[in-house]
Amino acid sequence: MATSHLHLFLFFLFTALSTVCQENNDDALPQLPPSEQEAVYRVLNSVNPAIPWRTIFPDNLCASPSDGVVCDYPDASSSTSLHVTELHLGYVSDYTQNPPCSSNATLDPLLFTSFEHLRKLFFYKCFTGAPASLPATIPEEFGSVLEELVFIENPSLSGDVGVLIGYFTKLRRLVLTGNGFHGSIPNRISGLVSLQEITLSRNSLTGGFPSNATSRLKNLKVLDFSHNSLTGDAPDSIGDLTELLKLDLSYNAFSGKYMST
């Protein structure tokens, strides 16, 4: 009997110690700042309100994040604070389990004000039903470390394309294809000197080619403005893009000499 009592005592002692250790380990895990976690919930809910995001992911989102939400340390010198560095939204395939968007998906403005460490933003077939729109303005601070901005096949998402193209000095990929964007291509696109790809095809863009738009984009490999309503001359500076592998300006109203490949 004494042996049984000893075994029972040791069992409860082991359980209690395990619980304390687990709680301490959970406390030691780097946490996503509460305001940033709230913004993730809001963004996820805006693209699919039918999914109970807060119930499925009630605690530290970075410890066990939703598909499509990537957390990381913002730089090599940081080891205590995690932040959201990638958001991939919209179903791609059974092998890419991003959160699927609903037919009444909207774009929460918090997306452009709450993720200062965001490196990649990806929307694929997310806005295909009810009308959605870009905010009227986006803070210049958005995208200070952004490397990839990708909106593909979102026909019901409208807005001035100039609003979405900010001062992204680290941006490598700008892919806005098959959306409902309108307006003209802003001159500040020439300042995105890290760009390797610009694809703005199949929107409703108008106006001319920005002056000196490509003169500083020495790393550009893909330039695709096809299937819009752009007019005017294509600049001679395109010929100076020695790294260019694909150029497509087809299905516009350009004058002057250019080629489509």
TrEMBL record:
Which locations, inside or outside the cell, does it occupy?
Cell envelope
- Signal sequence span is 1-21
Q: Which InterPro entries match?
A: Leu-rich_rpt (IPR001611), LRR_dom_sf (IPR032675), PGIP (IPR051848)
Please indicate if the UniProt record lists Signal as a keyword: yes
Q: Which UniProt keywords apply?
A: Signal
PANTHER family, alphabetically?
LEUCINE-RICH REPEAT DOMAIN, L DOMAIN-CONTAINING PROTEIN-RELATED, POLYGALACTURONASE INHIBITOR 1
Protein name per the record:
Leucine-rich repeat-containing N-terminal plant-type domain-containing protein
